[in-house]
Amino acid sequence: MGKMTLEELRKLREAQKSEISKRDTAGKDITIFVGMGTCGIAAGAKTTFDTLIKAVDANGLSDKVVVKQTGCMGLCYVEPTVEVIAPGMPQTIYGKVDSATAEEIVKKHLVEHTLVEGHIYDRPAIDIVKK
What we know:
By secondary structure, the protein is an alpha+beta fold. The protein contains four helices and five strands; from the N terminus they run αβααβββαβ.
């Protein structure tokens, strides 16, 4: 690799700042956890994780949402699993989350504030969810 110009270094710094800010949790009130235990990884959780990050960016939510990795959630039979914690919505674990479902979770759960039916594997009982 040859020497970089000052302008190239500045562009590189800005690109890295953007990537680092995605992992910063300060001021973000929505958290998405992706189960990245061996069972999740084997089922495609890395692709799900990458898709969630892209969907969050595409919907302009990067300043509100942090996407994190976690270990096995104990729902190995429905991997990849994704837990969403957002104000005003029930804490929900989605299962069998492929790329299309990951995009749907961002659109419906985070933007439209509705649950993604057919992929819910854990949420609070209806009698304790405030409407």
